[in-house]
Request: fold
Amino acid sequence: MEKTKISDPAEGEDLPRRSWKQDPDGVRANILLVAREAFAEKGLSGTRMDEIAARTSTSKRMIYYYFGDKEGLYREVLADAYRRTREAEDALELGGLPPDEALRRLAEFTFDHHRRSQDFIRLVMIENVHEGRHMPSADEMSGENSSAIRLLEEIYARGLEAGMFRAGLSAVELHWHISALSYFNVSNRATFSRIFGNELFEEEGQNTLRRHVGDMILKLVLA
Amino acid sequence: MEKTKISDPAEGEDLPRRSWKQDPDGVRANILLVAREAFAEKGLSGTRMDEIAARTSTSKRMIYYYFGDKEGLYREVLADAYRRTREAEDALELGGLPPDEALRRLAEFTFDHHRRSQDFIRLVMIENVHEGRHMPSADEMSGENSSAIRLLEEIYARGLEAGMFRAGLSAVELHWHISALSYFNVSNRATFSRIFGNELFEEEGQNTLRRHVGDMILKLVLA
DNA sequence: GACATATTGTTCGAGCGGGTTAATTTAGTC
DNA sequence: GACTAAATTAACCCGCTCGAACAATATGTC
Reply:
């Protein structure tokens, strides 16, 4: 579509473009941050590209320049969010503790960490609504790389060796249980509290739940 | 909802409206059913009204006639889904069993029931993304009406009386734990299996998980 | 037969929203 | 300092989708 010249001499007013600094990495990072918040808030189809653009310090055009299209942006937001979470998990150090204490710590740490990572949980919720269509397949995202799993394997092995834990469980199973309890606490707060009230989500209720989560996991594995 | 087919006498020229049976309830029910599937599949903003209309045995016009707008339809779909689930819960009968057995049954029943209610779970996921904005407030939807809670209260009371269970727990807490474990199994299957493989979601894995869920709940309450 | 309710059918427009085309500036290289 | 690729600004486009308007007809109830 040929566009007729816009510089209108009659108008007399030139459009002097603003000057700027080149900063590809900064621009990308800025877009990713804003997009993460937006997608976490409203989901994939619920988020407006114009809305994201408005909240960035750059323009809509740049989003398409760097990320291709909406789905491409969403994919990178998701991958980035998983990467960040994995990095946070790596920080946890339980080396010195006896197996039972370490396991409880891990479970309760996860409970708290999920609470602090609302945006991440929301992105996972949303991606599950999309049936994981935008995630790398199981091969690429090999679970062996998860530090949560590696930690659990190590703790469980030590517990077995010490005769403390019962045999026949797997690290992935334990991770599943810990995740389920920690995730639900964030993901379903809205509907659960509408039906049953907000009590469990207040300070005291959360302390009780956290303790229970630790209890349940421990009692499951103890011999 | 069957349309009595009428052979047009004056084929093509006139537009003789077909005859029909008045069936407001049927039409409403048909729309609700189709809309439930659609919203469960694609979410609120992801679903197209024309798409819903096409799948019903009636017309788009009727959707607006009965439900006002998209959000009104979504609200009723959600309320209807909760109603159905509550009705299903009512069917469960554990009267005769000793408290520990009853509790395990309830937990494992919930686990299985959630697995069978994928659409319901998806609607709840979606509604949580919307922060429960379309649900009745805690007052109207009083949790006391939940039969799951009533069952748990009754079981827990019996267990306490028998000296089997430890004191200090509440029915809502127990329900929270059971729900968390049963819900996550459905809601997060997509992302979890992408990362850790599909094993836990196959027959054998599910049997193990179900048993663990029962174990964990029981061990939590046993004295 | 009057009247409210239910139903079918068609058309349309406004605005939203994802994506594009074009022009311009920056910055690295020779 | 000329050249060029990459980075960035700015304005535009068009299809999709919600919802409404318009129009007519059938059904049921009293």
About this structure: Chain A touches chain B through 56 residues (CB under 8 Å). The mean pLDDT of chain A is 88. The CA atoms of residues 2 and 214 of chain A lie 67 Å apart. Residues 1, 3, 6, 15, 17-18, 20, 22-24, 27, 58-59, 61-62, 65 of chain A lie near DNA strand D (CB under 10 Å from a C1').
